[in-house]
Specification:
Layout (H helix, E strand, L loop, with lengths): L4 H5 L1 H9 L6 H11 L7 E5 L5 H13 L8 E6 L9 E5 L5 H10 L5 E6 L9 H22 E12 L4 H11 E9 L8 E9 L34 E4 L35 H9 L22 H11 L12 E4 L4 E4 L1
Parallel strand pairs: 1-2, 1-4, 2-3, 3-9, 4-5, 6-8
Antiparallel strand pairs: 5-7, 6-7, 9-10
The structure holds S-adenosylmethionine.
Function: Methylates the 2'-O-ribose of nucleotides at positions 32 and 34 of the tRNA anticodon loop of substrate tRNAs.
Catalytic activity: cytidine(32)/guanosine(34) in tRNA + 2 S-adenosyl-L-methionine = 2'-O-methylcytidine(32)/2'-O-methylguanosine(34) in tRNA + 2 S-adenosyl-L-homocysteine + 2 H(+)
EC number: 2.1.1.205
């Protein structure tokens, strides 16, 4: 495949590189903001599942524009399991959004006050098994909601990725318990062919007796019949397409000179750090095979055995390097399983 083929196929990918965004997802948040004005009066923001960091870039740019004349600089914290290259003015926390310790670190950084805005573009690695992927995405959204109940101030805004699928209506209802306004947004930079959309939840107002926790009792494994749902559980959210008709179609291919100007190839803004596939590439080029892995001709299925989330996390954690910080205005917090170090 040629270097330019992805540029031809995906105009938002190409524009992201031209405009300096680390990922094309930046346009999704920008288009959501155009419709919902999510950055208004926001001084403290949290980007959950932030790597490689294009949403943090948008937050940094927008919040700093809004606070040009203010004496207090905006505070932005980005959380991800994976290491992320430093971004000026963004604090990074390498950690898991399902852990209460992550919520505590965020509150500590905000000096015991809470965030005005929490965004989450979290996505687990897709398995290709449709139902499984939808289920895991719903669980991640609920984990994001859980941590948000610890870190968002009353009246604050929460934006998160959702897969529009069977459990969707129940998820919306559960969000509606915590937020006055819940809307489903589909930015035009998000492919029509994808079931991805975003919930935009405004005016955080949890029930009076609600005690934030990190357990996840909200989504059950029971089969769901929409007709059986009642009252708040039958809430139908408004659906809003964001991005006007002048925006390119994210499912279409465009010629490289689309839009007039002369095309020249741009490299991606930020390559992956510690990509999990790097070891496999090294091993493939050196002709070796991973320890404990049997030859592909082996009939034993051991090497294809599913691993538990904990095994997976342990292995991932073993590969995590503590990231040192280099820029003046940013610092990186790197969490290992039991303790967290702050490097400045
Ligand atoms: C689609 S990417 C986010 C892209 C990002 N919004 C951007 O614009 O650059 C999804 C991220 O979710 C992160 N993620 C998935 N599960 C997580 C968890 N439990 N805690 C923290 N991050 C998680 C992944 O590591 C991955 O980097």
């Amino acid at each position: 495949m040629g270097k330019t083929s992805k540029d031809k196929r995906d105009i938002y990918y190409r524009r992201a590189k031209e405009e300096g965004w680390r990922a094309r997802s930046a346009f999704k948040l920008l288009q959501i903001d155009n419709e919902f004005n999510i950055f208004e009066d926001v001084n403290k923001a949290v980007d959950l599942c932030a790597a490689p960091g294009s949403w943090s870039q948008v937050l940094s740019r927008k919040l700093n524009e809004n606070h040009k004349d203010a004496s207090e600089k905006p505070k932005i914290i980005a959380v991800d399991l994976q290491a992320m290259a430093p971004l000026d003015g963004v604090i990074q926390l390498q950690g898991d959004i399902t852990k209460v310790s992550t919520a505590e670190k965020i509150i500590t950084y905000f000096e015991n006050s809470k965030a005005d805005l929490v965004v989450c573009d979290g996505a687990p690695d897709v398995t290709g098994l449709h139902d499984m992927d939808i289920y895991i995405q719903s669980q991640l959204l609920l984990a994001a909601l859980n941590i948000t109940t610890h870190i968002l101030r009353p009246g604050g805004t929460f934006v998160a990725k959702i897969f529009r699928a069977r459990e969707g209506s129940l998820l919306y209802s559960q969000l509606k318990i915590f937020f006055e306004d819940v809307c489903c947004a589909k930015p035009s930079s998000s492919r029509n062919s994808s079931i991805e959309a975003f919930v935009v939840c405004k005016n955080y107002s949890p029930p009076d007796d609600y005690i934030p926790h990190m357990l996840n009792p909200l989504l059950t494994h029971e089969p769901l019949n929409y007709e059986d749902l009642k009252d708040v559980n039958k809430y139908v959210v408004p659906f809003m397409v964001c991005g006007d008709l002048t925006q390119p179609d994210s499912d279409a291919c465009y010629p490289l000179n689309f839009g007039g100007g002369e095309y020249s190839y741009s490299e991606p803004i930020q390559g992956p750090i510690d990509a999990p596939y790097e070891e496999a590439i090294k091993m493939e080029s050196s002709g070796s095979k991973p320890k404990n892995m049997k030859k592909s001709t082996d009939t034993n299925e051991d090497c294809n055995k599913p691993q538990s989330i904990n095994d997976f996390k342990k292995k991932a954690q073993a590969n995590v390097n503590l990231v040192d910080n280099s820029t003046d205005n940013s610092s990186i917090l790197c969490e290992d399983i039991t303790n967290l170090q702050i490097t400045k």
